[in-house]
Amino acid sequence: MHPAMRSLYELQQLDRYIAELRRTLEKLDPGEHIREEIQRQRAILEQIKREYDTLHAEAVDQELQLRQMDEKFREVERELYSGRITNPKELAALQGDLDYLKRRRSDLDMRLLEMWDKMETLRQQINQSQERMNEIEMRYEAYRQEYEYRKASLESEIRFHEQQRDELARQIDPEALAHYERIRERLGEIAIAKVVNRACDFCHTLLTPYLLKQLEQGTELITCESCARLLYWEELDPPR
Fold first, then answer.
1. Which of 23, 81, 196, 205 could in theory staple to 201 by disulfide, Cβ–Cβ 3.0 to 4.6 A?
2. Across-strand partners of 195?
3. Are residues 99 and 55 in the same domain?
């Protein structure tokens, strides 16, 4: 078995661990689900505020109409009781105007009360919605802090193990390393399979006596005849 196989196998373990760290990093959720929740809540809050503003503008206009109506009522009332008008038909007409203005004012008062009640309900909804918004934003901020911490930790760990990998790779025979890299590029993360019970531990193919003898006595890189991965027989590699 090639003397670099133990180091190559250790390199593969590092490569697989780094790949797993990168996958974990890619899967980190930066909080998009909470940000979307904030956007939905903001849309609800803005809708309530628009409804409140529209109703408030209408209430202000209604109050202006009431003031104008009160002024008109006082004018008609002064005219009615001024004594200047004695014609019964004209007096009756003025009384009719007063009665109409009273009814109209009563209708406007009722409508204004309904509007103020509705506005009070909307104010409560705005406050509740704003509290909900604040709560979600605080949760988002806490989540982002945890995300940034986790992201920085993973990136730091990846850099650390990449440095380990570079140091280990410099100690490996360049031709053997290049062979490993070619297989890894072609077959994926697992370029080296262990020999377990005289079989390839990746594809579970029993190795031929000739191949086993090559592993025992040779110093070449040996690949599995079935899956084409480098073979590492740990039992032949004495502890360091």
1. 196
2. 200
3. yes
